[in-house]
Amino acid sequence: MIGAWLCVTLIASAPGRPNPFSRAALDELAFRIVEQAEGARPEAPVGVYVEGGPPVLARAFASAVSAQLAARRRGPSVLEASSAAEAEALARTRDVRTLLRLTVQLDGQKLLARGDAVHTWVNFWSGASSGRGEAWAALAGSVDADAQALALGAAPSPPAPSGPLKLALTSFARLASLPAALAFGDLDGDGKGELAVLLDEGVSVFDADGHLKWKSELRDLPAAASPSREPYGALAVLPGPPRLLLASSRKARQAVLVARGQRLELSATDAPLPVDGALVRPLAGMNVLERQVVLGGKALELPAPPTALSVRGATALLVYPDGTAMLLDGAVPATHFSGAGAASTLADLDADGSPELLLSSTRYAVDGDPLVVLSLAQAQQLQARAGSTADAQPLWQGATPRGRAIVALGADLDGDKAEEVVLGIWLPDGTGELLVAKVTR
């Protein structure tokens, strides 16, 4: 009897098989799906795309499937995409040879998954068409839902967009790492603006259609003696001559980048950066700016180091790490308002000559970041009584489709006189994305 019990225990504890006495429903369902895929002998590396609602359940199941594939040395990667077709195209660009396309959902007390496994390689002789034909392995499974699965399945979805202002969020570009700062302007003097993004590993510049135009890894700049934990910095595009000024928390010196044909020429500088016309310097080793800033030619001492700043005309918005913010109009006010995240900015969204405030949430561990838009008058009233954005009646409220918004920039990307807001998103897998928020008529 003891020998039989030991044999069963060893089999149940074998690599890749969750322990039957402790495994979660998600892990068991992932095991069953991967076992079916293994029967068709998938070619590594294997990609995983999971859709379903709420999104947090789909992401948790994707992680469980990836863990099962990793135990079988299949080189898994979870693909973030808006559809199964987009996931397949993404898999090809990343040389993923097999793709598991899955849907997961709760049906009462049952956790269900179904989908298929497909080859993603392209036959050289078939041109742009895939050589795999139809899906070559159907996948399906169900288990009894446990408390974890039920909790994930009950997670609230992001709020539906609402308010008198109509705003649409669209994807602009995917990033290999976290966005740390944004700037927009004509960098090569051709009359068309470019969007510059500071990343952990350097800076990338995109045209107005989201295509990468230039990239620099900033290798000629010395590393900072005490870099911040997450990438942080500031960017500014200046005319006459066109150039990009840059400060990164990962580098010991600031830089000037000038576009020369297909490359960016770099030189070090120690000049402060004119972000929206305000002269600022990042604080070494921290994800904030120095307290001393110059606004409208006037030197000001702020009550604390801000994490974000934007200026429109005589009005400046400063956001602090504690989730408070303040509006300056020549002098530092005595009161703040609360409920402003790091990805908050001023932007004239409706081209009426008065800027609106787009504010991200103050939540840290969030996937689907709540966003609100307030009028300048609303924000000034909140500040006067030291109120919270939770008490306001927003012009618009919604959320990012996924990830947390960490930087924002107001800019007229399409030249129609109405500004858009570019949001830099921190995605759950550690990569980034740029979203554009634009008023729709």
Walk me through what this model shows.
The chain has 441 residues and is of the alpha+beta class. It folds into two domains: 2-153, Rossmann fold, CATH 3.40.50; 167-439, Neuraminidase (6 Propeller), CATH 2.120.10. 16% of the residues lie in helices and 38% in strands. The chain contains six helices and 29 strands. The strands form eight sheets. It has a five-stranded mixed β-sheet, sandwiched between helices. A hairpin with a 5-residue loop joins strand 12 (243-248) and strand 13. Mean pLDDT is 87; it is low at 1-21 and 123-134.
Please name the defining characteristics of this protein.
441 residues; alpha+beta; Rossmann fold; 5-stranded mixed β-sheet; 4-stranded antiparallel β-sheet; globular; disordered N terminus
Q: In CATH's first tier, which class of the largest domain applies?
A: Mainly Beta
Total number of domains:
2
Strand count, sense and barrel status of the largest sheet are: 5 strands, mixed
Q: How confident overall, as mean pLDDT? A: 87
Helical run tally: 6
**Helicity range:** 10-25%
Number of strands: 29
CATH superfamily of the largest domain: TolB, C-terminal domain
In angstroms, what is the radius of gyration?
Answer: 25 Å
Sheet with most strands: strand arrangement: 2-1-3-4-5
CATH topology group of the largest domain:
Neuraminidase
Overall geometric form: globular
User: What is the level-2 CATH architecture name of the largest domain?
Assistant: 6 Propeller
Q: How big a fraction of the residues is strand?
A: 35-45%
Segments where pLDDT lies below 50 for 5+ residues? Answer: 1-21, 123-134
Oligomeric composition of the shown chains: single chain
Structure classification: alpha+beta
Report how far apart the termini are. Answer: 75 Å
